Each structure stands twice: as structure tokens, then as C-alpha cells.
């Protein structure tokens, strides 16, 4: 029996496993392939929702669906990969060292927030919403602020980075800080614009929403230091604040560095249209670990986003299994792109295309964002529905958004 091992149980890892299982069922070769997932916990963290309150609730158990599908699970951490020996060296949560061999490997270990070395105190003093644990620490900290005497530093929260995560975190804070009277929320960015990756039509609405929510903007302002009581900017200005949330940038799992092959500036492995690492025949990369073209013309690279991870996972799982079972592989292609940005109590913004031109905003956009966050990104409870959704050739983003608009209408 051949063995497919998947490192990671995020969106790409989960759907890799389910897509591989789907293929074995479809071609009636379930006894020909063992599928194993390696991850610290048998659960899917809803990472796109960690800017919200109560992040401990943003977890979906995977044990039942894996058991029903016959997917084995190793609870632990992959520490090293030897691609010449087709071997993974892992440590279980009990601390036991294990050697796991594979015939095909899918690296789906995701990414993590970057702490720039040039910013003094960032590691010890900044919060983030990158993981369940770090989001939980922030949540507990925000709730504990009322135990401190009122002061400008207690009542001020600085969000560092005005990209996607920073905007969503800042927009949600007014609701999360309803227990703090006169809370001050400041969004700081070295960029000259909020959401610089968005088109001006979308940026204007985002700026309007943040202003109406009472979020202050400090643009063109680089952070140089973060301590327990404040944030210092390159201009020398110091903002008294006991809460600094760092959202500026992520980098692919360090495990990509153990696999030979070209990487991009985010540490992602460059892969072909089948999501195989060109220099290592037996290894596929997916999700945030993969740098792939989203379109056939090679104009746009995939983003480190849930939207792309879901599709990347379905394709990588299918192809790794197909490679072992002698079945046809499929090209990864996700040329259409739509982006839905949460703006807290104000609503949301939906932008269309890679230029992110404004498509929809306000309450109706918020309904779609809630549908995505609370339903769409969650795996189905039953195996039959999960395997149906694991098809690597599902509708593109444009069609999916049309379906969502109909669903929430």
C-alpha cells in the first residue's frame, strides 16, 4: 500500500486529505492508499476569524471526519524532512520521537506572523491574531484592562499594519472594547494609504468606515519600538499604549527551507501547475507553503489567504493521490478573484478582480462576510458531503460569490 503524508491541518491540509480520500473512493482504490495527517491538534483553527472576540470558539474538530474517512492522524510536530530518504522526523505531543516514511508528501504547514528584528521589544510586548494561542492571549488581555486604573495608555490600542488583517482587527475593536469608556484605537502603517493593495474605489469606503467607527489613522509612520507601555514611531513620536497588535506580514513555514527548490520572498516553495515541487518529484506544496500561479497566463500568484488555500488543498490532495494511483492529474487554476473585508459594526467591503475594485459594501456585504466566516469555511459534518466538496474542479470565485449573494438575499 502506498502512503501519502500531509503535514498540517489548516484549510489546505484538511482539504488535501479529503480530496485524496475522494479520489480513492471515486476510482475504487481505497485499499491502495494510506493517508496520514501530521499536526499538533486534530482540529481546524478558523484563522480568518481570530480578530474576533472569543477566539477559543474558533475551532472545528477533525477527529470524527478523519475517523469516518479512514484518514490516520499523528498528533505532534514535524521537525525535519529528508526528501532523499522520503522520511519525516516528528515529535508527538508526549515528546516521543518518531520516524514517518512516505511515498508522497504534501507540505501544508502554513505560515506565521513575522516579527522584524529591527523593531525593539516586538516579540515580548506585541500581541497578534496569528494563532489560536496568541489570539487567546490578546482576548484575555483586552478583557483584563478594566482591572487597571484608567489612563491614556490603558485605554489606547495601537494596531500596527493597515493591510487586510490590520483593518479587520481595528474595525472589530470598537465592539470588543465596549467595556472600556473612551477607548482610543489607532491604526498605524508605514504605507501612505490604508489597504494599499486595494483599488482607490475600495480604499475610500474602507477609510470612511474606519473614520465612522472612530479609528484614528497614522499613515506613513513606521514603528521602531514596542514596550509594555507604548509604541515609538520613526518620527520620534511615542504613543502611550498598553496594547499593541502586530499584523504586518507573514512568512511560510520554516519547513520549506528543508526542501530543495526555489522560494519566493515569503519563503514559499515555487511549484508547477500540479503543485509539485519541481526539484523533488515526491513532494507537493500547498496553501501558504506554495507559490503558484493562480492563472494559466502566469500573471498572478496565489495569495496567503483562505480563499486560495481551500482550492490549493483540493488540487494538491487529488494530484498527490493521483500520482500514486496512476490517475490523471489536474492543473491548479483560480484565475477569478474576489475579496471580502470585514469592517466590524460598519459592515464589510467586497472587491472584485485582482485590482480589488469596489463591488459591494455595507450591510449586504456584511451578510456575505458572515456567511463566509460562519459557514462556508467550515468543513461539513458528514463524510459524503465533505467528499463532494473536495472535488478539485469546483466553481471559481466569481460563481461562488454569485451563489453566496443568492444565499444571503
TrEMBL record:
<dbReference type="InterPro" id="IPR045024">
    <property type="entry name" value="NDH-2"/>
</dbReference>
<dbReference type="Pfam" id="PF07992">
    <property type="entry name" value="Pyr_redox_2"/>
</dbReference>
<comment type="similarity">
    <text>Belongs to the NADH dehydrogenase family.</text>
</comment>
<dbReference type="InterPro" id="IPR023753">
    <property type="entry name" value="FAD/NAD-binding_dom"/>
</dbReference>
<dbReference type="GO" id="GO:0003954">
    <property type="term" value="F:NADH dehydrogenase activity"/>
</dbReference>
<dbReference type="InterPro" id="IPR036188">
    <property type="entry name" value="FAD/NAD-bd_sf"/>
</dbReference>
<keyword id="KW-0560">Oxidoreductase</keyword>
<keyword id="KW-0520">NAD</keyword>
<protein>
    <recommendedName>
        <fullName>FAD/NAD(P)-binding domain-containing protein</fullName>
    </recommendedName>
</protein>
<keyword id="KW-0274">FAD</keyword>
<feature type="domain" description="FAD/NAD(P)-binding">
    <location>
        <begin position="3"/>
        <end position="310"/>
    </location>
</feature>
<keyword id="KW-0285">Flavoprotein</keyword>
Amino acid at each position: 500500500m502506498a502512503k501519502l503524508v500531509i503535514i498540517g491541518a489548516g484549510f489546505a491540509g484538511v482539504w488535501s486529505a479529503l480530496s485524496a480520500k475522494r479520489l480513492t473512493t471515486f476510482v475504487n482504490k481505497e485499499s491502495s492508499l494510506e493517508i496520514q495527517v501530521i499536526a499538533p491538534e486534530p482540529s481546524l483553527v478558523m484563522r480568518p476569524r481570530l480578530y474576533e472576540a472569543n477566539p477559543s470558539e474558533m475551532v472545528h474538530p477533525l477527529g470524527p471526519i478523519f475517523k469516518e474517512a479512514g484518514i490516520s492522524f499523528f498528533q505532534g510536530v514535524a521537525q525535519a524532512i529528508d526528501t532523499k530518504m522520503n522520511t519525516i522526523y516528528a515529535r508527538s505531543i508526549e515528546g516521543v520521537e518518531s520516524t514517518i516514511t512516505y511515498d508522497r508528501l504534501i507540505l501544508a504547514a502554513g505560515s506565521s506572523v513575522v516579527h522584524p528584528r529591527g523593531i525593539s521589544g516586538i516579540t515580548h510586548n506585541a500581541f497578534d491574531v496569528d494563532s489560536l494561542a496568541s489570539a487567546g492571549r490578546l482576548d484575555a488581555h483586552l478583557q483584563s484592562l478594566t482591572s487597571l486604573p484608567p489612563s491614556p495608555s490603558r485605554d489606547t490600542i495601537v494596531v500596527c499594519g493597515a493591510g487586510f488583517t490590520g483593518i479587520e482587527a481595528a474595525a472589530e475593536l470598537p465592539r470588543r472594547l465596549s467595556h472600556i469608556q473612551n477607548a482610543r484605537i489607532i491604526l498605524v502603517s508605514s504605507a501612505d494609504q490604508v489597504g494599499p493593495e486595494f483599488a482607490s474605489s475600495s480604499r475610500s469606503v474602507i477609510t470612511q468606515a474606519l473614520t465612522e467607527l472612530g479609528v484614528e489613522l497614522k499613515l506613513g509612520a513606521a514603528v521602531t519600538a514596542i514596550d509594555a507601555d507604548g509604541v515609538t514611531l520613526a518620527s520620534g513620536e511615542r504613543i502611550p499604549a498598553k496594547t499593541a497588535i502586530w499584523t504586518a506580514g507573514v512568512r511560510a513555514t520554516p519547513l520549506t527551507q528543508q526542501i530543495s527548490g526555489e522560494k519566493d520572498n515569503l519563503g514559499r516553495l515555487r511549484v508547477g501547475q500540479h503543485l509539485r515541487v519541481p526539484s523533488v518529484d515526491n513532494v507537493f506544496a500547498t496553501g501558504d507553503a506554495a507559490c503558484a500561479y493562480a492563472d494559466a497566463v502566469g500573471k498572478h500568484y496565489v495569495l496567503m489567504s483562505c480563499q486560495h488555500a481551500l482550492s490549493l488543498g483540493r488540487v494538491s490532495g487529488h494530484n498527490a493521490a493521483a500520482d500514486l494511483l496512476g490517475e490523471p492529474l489536474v492543473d491548479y487554476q483560480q484565475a477569478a478573484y474576489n475579496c471580502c473585508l470585514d469592517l466590524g459594526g460598519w459592515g464589510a467591503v467586497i472587491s472584485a478582480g485582482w485590482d480589488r475594485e469596489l463591488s459591494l459594501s455595507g450591510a449586504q456585504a456584511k451578510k456575505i462576510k458572515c456567511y463566509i466566516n460562519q459557514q462556508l469555511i467550515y468543513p461539513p459534518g458528514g463524510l459524503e458531503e465533505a467528499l463532494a466538496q473536495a472535488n478539485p474542479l469546483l466553481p471559481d470565485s466569481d460563481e461562488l460569490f454569485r451563489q453566496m449573494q443568492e444565499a444571503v438575499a
